[in-house]
Amino acid sequence: MRRVLITGASGLLGRPIWTACSSVGDWQVTGTAFRRAGQGVAKVDLSAVDTIPAFLDLYRPDAIIHSAAERRPDVSEKDPEGTKRLNVDATAAIATWAKRKGAYLIYISSDYVFDGTQAPYMPDSPTCPINTYGLSKLAGEHAIRDSGAMAALLRVPILYGAVQYLAESSVTVLVQNMLNARGTGQLLPMEHWATRYPTLTDDVAVVLRQMLDYHFMKGPLTGIYHWSGSEPMTKYEMSLVFAKEIGFDPARLVPDATPPGSGASRPKDCHLDSSLLESLGMGQRTPFAVAIPRILEGVKMAPLRCTRGRAEHDTFYPEKVAKNRSS
Ligand code: NAP
User: Fold this and answer.
1) N or C: which end of the chain has fewer CB within 10 A?
2) Mean pLDDT within 291-311
């Protein structure tokens, strides 16, 4: 049985990757996390780069899916050194180990390696990040290329999926904002400037599983790949879908077409062309309007597990969701 190691296994994407890799019993799955380690997921601080080879020697994976990262652009802007240690130096150390031991590596990268002015982007389109986070993800890509490891890079756009708390994803955080405004009667401005392609983590995880299987069963799968949802949406347009689900008056949502004025610079439209993976027979897409009710129901039902976000379950909207479900 082959062994796959998932870094960032406690994260928004890492959790579904774990599920997808475990779903058929031909992979022995191990994972790493940092603050949320436990339940079979080893605690490793990947920022302590020197410890990475010894840790990997312990598990000797045949494949590594490297998902751990600092992925909050505003945090990266404030802490470029910490971001570099995790997103670049740790990636380089993992790639060097993979090259030395002949392990296959899949690195999760981001649409933020582009500047958002020339969409759609092909895997070989020129890169041009405009914030510290995007620069770090691109530097991670370069570290893998320079290591000579047998590796595939998968770039993905804004992700959403099952969350432990609403603010865990920059998609479901919009629901949190709407819940906070509930009862105030005030208008709620929602960004209507950047076009995003919200992509379900479960779908990305299935694609990663397909990539693993392709590599080990059909032949080497190396180079750069894109996977993206296919529905262009601004945050305002996503909010309209949420409003319907949680019974929030859509007339209170105000489209705001001005570019974000604070924090890290954001690209306007980084649509990733996914046709290369599709041409290899890979892919899965769940419509946004189908996935969202399941995710909101999951937040309502989930036990409180996480302290990073607010414990909003007690103030959630069970009556409304239940009403919408039954109608
Ligand atoms: P996430 O939810 O923030 O999870 C990050 C993971 O990295 C967690 O498992 C976290 O562990 C781990 N981690 C953080 N610091 C660590 C450290 N010092 N040592 C070891 N592990 C550490 O991120 P995600 O959304 O799953 O992102 C997964 C990948 O997708 C990343 O490479 C990201 O750049 C990329 N991506 C994400 C998005 C998005 O919208 N989320 C969009 C494009 C690309 P603990 O939580 O246990 O500390």
Assistant:
1) C
2) 66
